[in-house]
Amino acid sequence: MSSATDGMSQESPIRYRIPLAAGIGCYVLAVIVGMFPLSDDLGSGLLILLWIVHGVLLAVLISRLRVSIETALGAALFIVLASVMSVYVAGTARDDFTLQSRGERVTATVVKERLDPPQGRQARHSHYTLKQQDGTRVPGPEMDTISDLYNVGEVLTVIQDPQGKLRPETPGEADSTGDLVGAGAFALAALGAVAWMAWRGSDTAKRRNKEKKKSPSGTQKAYKAVSSSHTTQAEQEEKLRQALRTFPPDRRGYIKLQPESYPDVSQHRAARIAWEMGLRPEAVGNRGSWRFGETVMEAVPYD
User: Fold this and answer.
1) Is the pLDDT of residue 213 over 70?
2) Which of 44, 61, 143, 272 has the fewest other C-beta atoms within 10 Å?
3) Domain boundaries, the chain
4) pTM of the model
């Protein structure tokens, strides 16, 4: 009876996590689609507030995939940034498509050029005032380019907006294909982050890591063979307890030990011993060592 219950408890998180990850992915897509029309109607302050609320909600949802809160926050930040870029690039593609649909090709002359003021290493945009051959100004805002492409007096073929709402652009710049691909790529990156979090929190990944860390590593086995260490696991565990009691912490508050000194003690078992002594084992950034502290970025699960 108990084995059947244990099997159900191991399968239920997996069944629960798959629809949760799918729901988070649908939510991310819904936000991207919903923020696309709102980006023109709402002020920047309100948009920033909405994106922050979206990020907090994402972090809460992703943490339900059984990843650490630090990992969930990092993933939520990445997804929000990718979503913002997707909405921005999609807006550029929409303007280009609109200009191609209702725009008119005209021959215009550059009559004025101005550069943005320098801001560190940021690229300076060039702005051009254009006039048609009959002397009338090309309607809409000034034509804008990332670099200085044209000179005063140069004659160009541009697409102008008869309604005067969109900037004039050359036929090559008004192509929306690249922007559409870019917007889709950013959206896929956001969805990929959700899938990665679901995989990272899956029981399969956790079980794989647990099996990898359960037995002594190759380095530990090699150290034991070379050093001809005949100490038992119990003696090594007592040695580990003594080290955790007496070794001074470094400037970051970690007690740093070498796992080769305890060849029969797995990292999970060491984590359990540290937990019994009021310490937590660090799971990231160890570079081959074991680090223990009162507070850590991400703790190693213990046996």
Assistant:
1) no
2) 44
3) 2-97+177-204, 104-160, 215-293
4) 0.55
Beta bridge pairs of residue 114? 127
Q: What is the pLDDT of residues 165-176, one digit of tens each?
A: 788 887 777 676
Give the bridge partners for 291, in sequence order. Answer: 256
Lowest mean per-residue pLDDT among 2-6, 45-49, 180-184, 264-268: 2-6
Which among 201, 279, 272, 205 has a CA at the least distance from the CA of 244?
279
pLDDT grade, residue 56 (50/70/90)?
very high
Residue 236 token pair: 């090594």
Amino acid at 187: A
Give the strands of the sheet with 155-160, arranged side by side. Answer: 143-145, 126-132, 104-115, 155-160
How far apart, in Å, are the Cα atoms of 144 and each of 115, 116, 118, 162, 250? 10, 10, 16, 18, 55
Contact indicator for 113, 126 with CB cutoff of 8 Å: yes
CATH classification code of 215-293: 3.30.1370
CB contact at 8 A, 135 and 178? no
